[in-house]
Amino acid sequence: MRIDILTLFPEMFESFLTTSILGRAVEKGLVSIKVHNIRDFADNKHKQADDYPYGGGAGMVLMPQPLSDCIKHVLSQYREKTYEKKTKIIYLSPQGQVLSQQMARELSKEPSLILICGHYEGIDQRIIDRYVDMEVSIGDYVLTGGEIPAMVLIDCVTRLIPGVLGSQESILEESHTAGLLEYPQYTRPAVYDGDEVPQVLLSGDHERIKRWRRQQSLKNTLKKRPDMLKKASLTEEDYKFLKELKDSE
Hints:
This protein is α/β, with parallel strands linked by helices. The chain has two domains: 2-166, SPOUT methyltransferase, trefoil knot domain (Alpha/beta knot, 3-Layer(aba) Sandwich), CATH 3.40.1280; 173-248, tRNA(m1g37)methyltransferase, domain 2 (Trp Operon Repressor, Chain A). It contains eight helices and nine strands. The protein has helices at 20-28, 64-78, 101-107, 125-131, 147-158, 168-172, 206-224, 236-248; strands spanning 2-7, 32-37, 50-51, 61-62, 88-98, 112-117, 134-137, 191-192, 195-196. The strands form three sheets. Strands 2-1-6-5-7 form a five-stranded parallel β-sheet. Strands 3-4 form a two-stranded antiparallel ribbon. A two-stranded antiparallel ribbon has the order 8-9. The longest helix has 19 residues, at 206-224. It is elongated, with a radius of gyration of 23 Å. It starts with a strand and ends with a helix.
């Protein structure tokens, strides 16, 4: 997958793109990520990329010319290679569809993404109308710019690309992947400060461990995110366990 990031603050991505799992994925060539400074495409001597909004009001708006030329530059590079379909252009915006695990799975199948990081009061609407395929938000709150949301989207999407994580099994058992929150995790030592690891995890009985983990996921979800249970795929055994939990309260 190739990802292009369009931003006013490329320095924010330097550490993010070179560390941990994402950094290793880039080194292996599983993901190619390029950062483009929108200011570099401004056609004025001061490299100004924002201006006051028409109609008045507080804040600044990203101008259409630098952003449009930046997008055109990136798209011209894409034309040099063959892609299965048109590159998806995403604008990180508080007005967008909220990022979910399902959306991340769908985006991970794209051959390429262009991410536009807005800033200040946003970007000129003409850019959205002309270029943007979808707007994405990471939650119902407002941030200073789209850089942090872009990082969240990149991390969420790229870890689903085959080979990026060491074990695909870990993806299948994570929170939200199966519509439930993940079960509690434990590691050595077996006893720490008087607290013991649940004995079932030390039993070596894989069926008992699997059943315990499923029940703990249900328990976690009921306690923290009961709304998720409405959409989760549950078995008769799951419903029975949840009923017992509710009856015991």
